[in-house]
Design a protein that fits this description.
Number of helices of chain A: 17
Number of strands of chain B: 4
Structural class of chain B: alpha+beta
Helix content of chain A: 40-55%
Strand order of the largest sheet of chain A: 1-2-3
Strand content of chain A: 5-15%
Largest sheet of chain B: 4 strands, mixed
Oligomer: heterodimer
Structural class of chain A: alpha+beta
Number of helices of chain B: 3
Distance between the termini of chain A: 58 Å
């Protein structure tokens, strides 16, 4: 058959659209999450995410709990980054109640937040590559470093993942003496890990084929879709709350905000690698300065747990936000002067970063949906709250 | 870094969009300041029993009329340069019969966030949708609808986000029955 007539036959063939469910129980959806995908052959025409399978009304739990009782609940939002979630709630409550944080406590907080960023990005990149079909091997590299950081968290807070380490006005206890030597051990190994991880993957043909030009989110769309974090920066917008509205001691520390150029999955992967390096720089600076810091690990006025429980912020509202590894994590609190917040709202980066998912997937193959979802880096505990 | 205080925003809105700001409330005799002005002193801590119930509606932020929301939001984006909608949420002030919506914007050059509030009656909670020209509001408006029952006419797909479609009621409203209420005791507040 000549080429021309084959094209005509193809054009005349009637294809039928098909609705396909990915999830709710599917290993690639990072939790209990359902995608209703409309496909024509292998091509995605439309995609609708369905949320709520993990919904437990975290916000209402916040309204019936005292302020400090919400702290362990925030660990369960994004269970990869409990330290970053603690940080967000602390910032919001301290803003609302006007609590001062000593310098040493601030440095410990930033140290924990940056270690969290390293472990989150190591895991996020590893899982994303797992989604591409590089079964388990890159994941093992990422998880190995994550375990070392989790050991440090266990040392400081008593728990690996559900740390519950922050208190209003500081952190619950100072770093134990054996913390610093182990942190030094970790820091010695990290640059090798970054280089190794990047060398393994950056030029990898499979990764490049699967990720370059896939799931592009142009600069203008990224801003109007309200995405934050590495996804926004991969699209070329250098917005980082640590620079834009510095909280804690970030204005005293030196780091760069990497940005991407295309905004595809590959850029998001590279941004995460680079952000790990920047977090490493931050941790280095903190290690240098931590011995010279003043103040204890917590504001003496808030050191007693009874003071934490009986906290009655003055009536009013406050919005506190931090740059969590996944994006802008915000807490909006309204106080009526009692021990429980009148309104407790979490602005979850994972949830809002899913807004452009349909647009990003349209026109790609079904297998790319999984990769694009992996590149946004979601945790269902935070999406569904 | 750009930074716009609530006063400045109110001035700009009065000048450029006359009639968009909601008229001042009649009983706004004591004004506490909100989060928008961290440089001013925090309001004095209310003493126990010293004054009557707290006036939750007192705020320093700009409050606009609900039907003018699309105009105001366009103005904030196109004229003031706050091109990023970061948060959209609702609060139920049941005692006053109002639901408040808070739109929070940020400037991509940095600086603090800027909040715009609007208030609608609880029984007719209707605010025009901004999703048609601001896609980032899509899921957040759906969440406000799901949890608080705020209707957003103009939204292309206003269905529940978290609760299932057959669910009745709006779980974050203050009058939604909660099974756990009996476990909250006053003693542990001491």
């Amino acid at each position: 058959m000549p080429q021309n007539s084959k094209l005509i036959v193809n054009a005349m063939l009637k294809t039928q659209e098909l609705q396909l469910n990915i999830g709710p129980q599917h290993p690639s959806t990072h939790g209990v999450f359902r995608l209703i995908v409309t496909v024509d052959g292998e091509t995605v025409i439309d995609l609708k995410p369905v949320f709520g399978y993990l919904h437990r009304n975290h916000e209402q739990l916040g309204e019936v709990s005292t302020y400090i009782q919400s702290m362990p609940f925030t660990d369960r939002l994004d269970y990869f980054n409990s330290m970053a979630n603690n940080f967000g709630l602390s910032i919001a409550v301290e803003k609302l109640a006007g609590i001062e944080v000593p310098q040493r406590a601030n440095y410990i907080r930033v140290l924990m937040a940056e270690l969290t960023r390293i472990l989150n990005h190591a895991a996020a990149v590893a899982f994303m590559i797992n989604d591409m079909g590089a079964w388990q091997t890159p994941l093992a590299y990422g998880m190995r470093e994550r375990e070392k950081i989790l050991d440090l968290f266990e040392m400081a807070s008593g728990a690996r993942m559900m740390c519950n380490y922050f208190r209003f006005g500081g952190v619950v206890r100072d770093l134990p003496p054996e913390f610093m030597p182990q942190l030094h051990d970790l820091m010695r190994g990290l640059p090798t890990f970054f280089d190794e991880f990047e060398r393994l993957l950056r030029e990898n043909e499979i990764l490049m084929l699967r990720s370059q030009g896939v799931g592009i989110l142009p600069k203008e769309l990224a801003a109007s879709y309200s995405v934050t974090g590495p996804v926004l920066r991969a699209s070329g917008i250098a917005y980082d709350i640590r620079k834009a509205e510095p909280y804690s001691v970030y204005d005293e520390l030196d780091f760069d905000v990497p940005i991407g150029s295309v905004g595809d999955v590959y850029d998001r992967f590279l941004i995460r690698i680079e952000e790990m390096r920047q977090s490493y720089r931050l941790v280095q600076q903190i290690i240098e300065r931590l011995p010279d810091t003043t103040g204890g690990h917590i504001n003496p006025a808030m050191a007693n747990i009874g003071k934490q429980k009986a906290l009655r912020p003055p009536a009013g509202d406050a919005y506190g936000r931090v740059e969590s590894p996944k994006g802008e994590l915000g807490f909006y609190l309204v106080s009526d002067g009692s021990t429980r917040p009148y309104r407790y709202k979490v602005r979850a980066p994972s949830f809002i970063n899913l807004t452009p998912l349909g647009d990003m997937c349209r026109g790609h193959k079904v297998a790319d949906v999984v990769v694009i979802l992996g590149s946004i880096d979601i945790v269902m505990g935070e999406v569904d709250r | 870094m750009p930074s716009m205080s609530a006063e400045e925003l109110k001035e700009r809105l009065t000048r450029d969009l006359p009639g968009a700001l909601a008229p001042a409330r009649a009983k706004a005799e004591h004004v506490t300041n909100g989060s928008a002005a961290p440089q001013t002193d925090p309001p004095a801590k209310p003493k126990k029993g010293a004054e009557g119930p707290v006036d939750l509606l007192a705020t320093n932020d700009a409050i606009v009329l609900s039907e003018r929301i699309p105009d105001v939001v366009r103005y904030v984006r196109d004229t003031l340069g706050y091109t990023f909608l970061t948060d959209l949420t609702a609060v139920d002030y049941m005692a006053d019969g109002l639901i408040e919506l808070i739109y929070r914007f940020l400037h991509l050059d940095g600086g603090p966030t800027m909040a715009i509030k609007t208030r609608v009656p609880r029984d007719r909670a209707v605010v025009p949708s901004i999703t048609p020209f601001w896609p980032g509001a899509d899921l957040q408006e759906r969440e406000a609808y799901d949890m608080y029952g705020v209707d957003f006419p103009g939204h292309p797909n206003l269905v529940r986000v978290y609760m299932w479609d057959e669910f009745e009621g709006f779980p974050m409203r203050k009058d939604f029955p909660r099974q756990g209420d009996k476990y909250i005791e006053e003693e542990d507040e001491a």
